[in-house]
Specification:
single chain, 137 residues, mainly alpha, 5 helices, 6% strand, elongated, binds zinc ion
Length: 137
């Protein structure tokens, strides 16, 4: 069960990154951010709530990382990087990933849909660039 963290401690956590999500770097909304545990509670003892283990994060990033240990988190980053490259270049694998993520985004909420739509525009631009270059040859 989540422990209540004092207002003073929340302020100290916020100041560590000057109000930026430590995972994605985005500017946080002062009224809508969460305290993220660097080492998830399940992997720590009583020190999980110590200041060293707390950093600010947006709800979206915290929801993705939630409870993942170091190796699992590295896999998420590695897979994400590989998949993003495949998707960026519209390879067969990238197209399959794009379609899969689109289906998942429909079920997962508005922020997932917004990020998927952003990818869609970027990939559409890349496809158009490829078509233009291809037609000039
Ligand atoms: Zn974030």
């Amino acid at each position: 069960m989540a422990k209540t963290i004092s207002t003073d401690k929340r302020r100290l956590v916020w100041e560590k990154t000057q109000g930026h999500c430590h995972l994605c770097g985005d500017t946080l909304n002062e009224d809508n951010w969460v305290i993220e545990h660097i080492v998830p509670r399940v992997f720590t003892d009583h020190s999980a709530e110590d200041l060293w283990n707390l950093l600010p994060a947006c709800r979206f990033c915290n929801g993705i990382k939630k409870g993942l240990g170091p190796d699992h988190m590295r896999r998420v980053l590695m897979y994400g990087r590989y998949c993003a490259t495949e998707s960026k270049f519209s390879t067969d694998v990238g197209t399959a990933i794009y379609e899969y993520v689109g289906r998942r985004a429909q079920r997962s909420g508005s922020e997932h849909q917004r990020l998927w739509a952003m990818t869609t525009r970027r990939e559409a631009t890349k496809r158009q660039e490829k078509e233009i270059v291809g037609s000039e040859i």
